[in-house]
């Protein structure tokens, strides 16, 4: 197993419902260490830049409106197989298909307001971490 870093967003719906602490508990209980974190309120440029790979999708504008609707928590998580482990805790994009006990099964209200984001591969994780954090903002690697 590889020690990895992944990028995570707690989306506006979950922040508004006072659930940041619960989500952080889930990350830490799963062996994921929070090595950088901050609260940001995305503007249009930041949200559309982050989701630029989805700009041709019919739901793109709706996605931007949601991601700009309130503050989000962005964090970098480190652990063994962190990318896969994080996505397992999150659950399927569609909360109706998400595993029982996953964050999306418990908190997402729909496919578009789905509580959290997690990088899907090493390349996306590196790109997404660099989109929000400078090297100085990241804790040194534990190994
Ligand atoms: N059919 C849809 N209708 C509305 N919104 C959608 C739909 N599909 C995806 N989205 C939104 O776009 C986001 C990114 O979609 P993507 O296909 O990358 O899914 P994902 O990798 O599971 O989600 P994320 O990247 O947020 O972890 C989803 O999390 C969701 O908020």
UniProtKB/TrEMBL annotation:
Gene that encodes the chain: ndk
The name this protein goes by in its record: Nucleoside diphosphate kinase
Organism name: Ruminobacter amylophilus
GO biological process, one term: CTP biosynthetic process
Function: Major role in the synthesis of nucleoside triphosphates other than ATP. The ATP gamma phosphate is transferred to the NDP beta phosphate via a ping-pong mechanism, using a phosphorylated active-site intermediate.
Cofactor(s) needed: Mg(2+)
Active site: 117
Keyword Transmembrane assigned: no
Broad class of enzyme this protein falls into: transferase
PANTHER family in UniProt: NUCLEOSIDE DIPHOSPHATE KINASE (PTHR11349)
Entry binding sites for ATP: 11, 59, 87, 93, 104, 114
Family assignment from sequence similarity: Belongs to the NDK family.
Domain Nucleoside diphosphate kinase-like: 3-140
Compartmental location: Cytoplasm
């Amino acid at each position: 197993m590889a020690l990895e870093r992944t990028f995570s967003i707690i989306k506006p719906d979950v922040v508004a419902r006072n659930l940041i602490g619960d989500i952080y508990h889930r990350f830490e209980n799963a062996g994921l260490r929070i090595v950088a974190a901050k609260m940001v309120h995305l503007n249009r440029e930041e949200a559309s830049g982050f989701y630029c790979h989805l700009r041709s999708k019919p739901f793109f504008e709706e996605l931007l409106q949601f991601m700009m609707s309130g503050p989000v928590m962005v964090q970098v998580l480190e652990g063994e197989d962190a990318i896969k482990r994080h996505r397992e805790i999150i659950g399927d994009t569609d909360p109706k298909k998400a595993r029982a006990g996953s964050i999306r099964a418990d908190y997402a209200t729909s496919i578009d307001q789905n509580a959290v984001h997690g990088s899907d591969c090493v390349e996306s994780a590196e790109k997404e971490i660099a989109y929000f954090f400078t090297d100085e903002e990241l804790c040194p690697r534990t190994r």
